[in-house]
Amino acid sequence: MKALGTSRSIELLGSLQTVVASPLPEIAGHFSELLRPLLGHSALVIFTEDCTGRPQKKAGDKAIIDEVTLPELDAVRRALAADDSDPWGRRAVIGGSDRPITAWTASTGALLVLTDPELTAAGAADPESTLAMIDRLWQLVATSIRQQVAAAAPAYLQDSRAASAERAKLIADLTDAHSTTLESLLAVLRAPSVSAEAARQTAIELAASAMVSLRAVSDRDRSLAEEPVAQAFARLRDDLRPLVRFGDLDVQFIEPPANGRALPGEVAHAGRAIVRGAVLALVEQSGVSRVRVQWDCDGSNLLIQIRDDGAGALTADSPGVSPLTGRVAALGGSFDVQATAGWGSELTVSLPLDAPLAPLSPAAEWGLSPREQGVLALVASGARNKAIAAELVISENTVKFHVANLLRKVGASTRSELAALAR
């Protein structure tokens, strides 16, 4: 870039090294610092589906980064897909407000958004080259994010799994709360006592639209958090293709059932990384010419089996194998190595698809939804239907509906018995 001298270019490369070497949670902050001398901005947001637990990485104005949502970022990505000719001069709703942005999509599919962009004196000297340079820097950062996820340490996998579970619970609570509210609103507006037909019809349409939107948010989050097992295996084959194409290794792939249960994102990423590491460990042995990789899913676990045709001398302590045990342990899985002299070695891995469950409370054992648990807690406190309705901002009819369900699920015959069992 003409506007940058040699010393500034060296400084920029040093800053880029800091960004790509940073832990995943710190990348957004360091990348924001790197870009500010070229392009001022109020916030930087990265959205990458490689990081299933925490797909957003953000830095800057908390009023923006605390409020930005996945639907907003999806809308920006769709706009870029429709027209990516110029990142400058765009506007989008980010953090709940319409504001100017610049945005780029990386080859990995990751999205970078800068809000309230303003070229600095250095960047304004050659705006076109400045934006082109930011695009190239972003491609490198996005690639480093993918590589970090592929080689993530056990601690990151544990954090990712915890974040996925936390997000799933929040989505479930949000869906339950809003669905109940909207269902109650529809019931009231459809009541014969409501005379304002036009107002009622408009309100019904608005409420129905809101329910569709809410379900779309839930479905979008689910698609981000999960990866179909066949698709995950296809990505694994792509990862191992260089070994097949440029080496003498014969890699045989045993396909998983196409209709198997979808894998949580962190399990799919970890499974691919474990297989890559295991294959590399196997081919480091002399005499290995063939490796067979098999995935399967029993509905509760991802089952991985990797076998070679080597001398059969591999152990769990062999170089390249021992680091894999930490990854497997981080996800609560099992890892086993069996070797038979003259016949080869076999690595067997089992990764549970669901995070370990906390001890169940009595309410959870009854299979209650979050809303039903809230109603039950208030019933146990002695509150009547009117007070429960006011506390939860729902109608009394909805409270009665939930209480009837609670009586059925808990096996109580009266409200007093229900409260006693809950206590």
From TrEMBL:
Assigned keywords, A-Z:
DNA-binding, Transcription, Transcription regulation
Q: Which PROSITE patterns match?
A: HTH_LUXR_1, HTH_LUXR_2
Q: Which residues form the HTH luxR-type domain?
A: 359-423
Q: Which GO terms describe its molecular function?
A: DNA binding
Classification via Pfam families = GerE (PF00196)
SUPFAM superfamilies given in the database record: ATPase domain of HSP90 chaperone/DNA topoisomerase II/histidine kinase, C-terminal effector domain of the bipartite response regulators
GO-annotated biological processes: regulation of DNA-templated transcription
Known SMART domains for this protein? HTH_LUXR (SM00421)
Gene3D superfamilies assigned:
Histidine kinase-like ATPase, C-terminal domain (3.30.565.10), Winged helix-like DNA-binding domain superfamily/Winged helix DNA-binding domain (1.10.10.10)
Q: Which InterPro entries match?
A: HATPase_C_sf, Sig_transdc_resp-reg_C-effctor, Tscrpt_reg_LuxR_C, WH-like_DNA-bd_sf
Name of the protein this chain belongs to? LuxR family transcriptional regulator
